[in-house]
């Protein structure tokens, strides 16, 4: 059975608020884009336990203690560009050994996601996974890059909550009208590397 996506605490609280305002389960589900059964389960849980928090359940114990979760959450809140490797090392120094996927899953449960798109490259790789080797001998790979005199032009990953992409901590400062840059173009194939060319602006 596929694992269902867990609702955020804000969404669970919103369901209860709408229920207390007199809305039906069907109306709440339609407004929030949820199934009626999901809405009903949240409301029944709230009526029984007077909370929308996740209740203790059986299963494997968390690999990171509540104290460790607070530590890494506080770290990425202060510096959203902290890498998973940095967090793994921080926890290891504190006596907890975990993997990078565990870091991602833990922060995701706290409403934090590492945001950067890689779907296009993954899609291309899967589409050409079974291409014969000789086909690649007729391919030339080329790309260009812009080296900024100020800051970096590349995509930077940050840990952030939903709708927080414009927060100053999650953005990179830029220079008005540009800080100057150098454009380079290069290529390679199965036969080796091509020349690296500087593209001069006209």
Automatic annotation (TrEMBL):
Coiled coil: none annotated. InterPro entries: Homeodomain-like_sf, HTH_SB, RNaseH_sf, Transposase_5, Transposase_Tc1-like, WH-like_DNA-bd_sf. Pfam families: HTH_SB, HTH_Tnp_Tc3_2. One of its GO terms (molecular function) is DNA binding. Residues 1-52 form the Sleeping Beauty transposase HTH domain. One of its GO terms (biological process) is DNA integration. Residues 71-130 form the Transposase Tc1-like domain. This is Uncharacterized protein. It comes from Oncorhynchus mykiss (Rainbow trout). The lineage of its organism: Eukaryota, Metazoa, Chordata, Craniata, Vertebrata.
């Amino acid at each position: 059975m596929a694992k269902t996506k867990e609702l955020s605490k804000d969404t669970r609280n919103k369901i209860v608020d709408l229920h207390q305002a007199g809305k039906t389960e069907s109306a709440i589900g339609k407004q929030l884009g949820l199934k009626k059964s999901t809405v009903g389960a949240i409301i029944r849980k709230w009526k029984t336990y007077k909370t929308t928090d996740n209740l203790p359940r059986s299963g494997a114990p968390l690999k990171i203690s509540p104290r460790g979760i607070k530590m890494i959450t506080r770290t990425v809140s202060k510096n959203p560009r902290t890498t998973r490797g940095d967090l793994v090392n921080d926890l290891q120094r504190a006596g907890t050994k975990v993997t990078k996927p565990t870091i991602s899953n833990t922060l995701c449960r706290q409403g934090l996601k590492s945001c950067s798109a890689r779907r296009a490259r993954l899609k291309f790789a899967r589409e050409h996974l079974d291409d014969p080797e000789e086909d690649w001998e007729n391919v030339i790979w080329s790309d260009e890059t812009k080296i900024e005199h100020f800051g970096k032009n590349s995509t930077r990953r940050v840990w952030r909550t939903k709708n927080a992409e414009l927060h100053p901590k999650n953005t990179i400062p830029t220079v008005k009208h540009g800080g100057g840059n150098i454009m380079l173009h290069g290529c390679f194939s199965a036969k080796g590397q091509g020349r690296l060319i500087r593209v001069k602006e006209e």
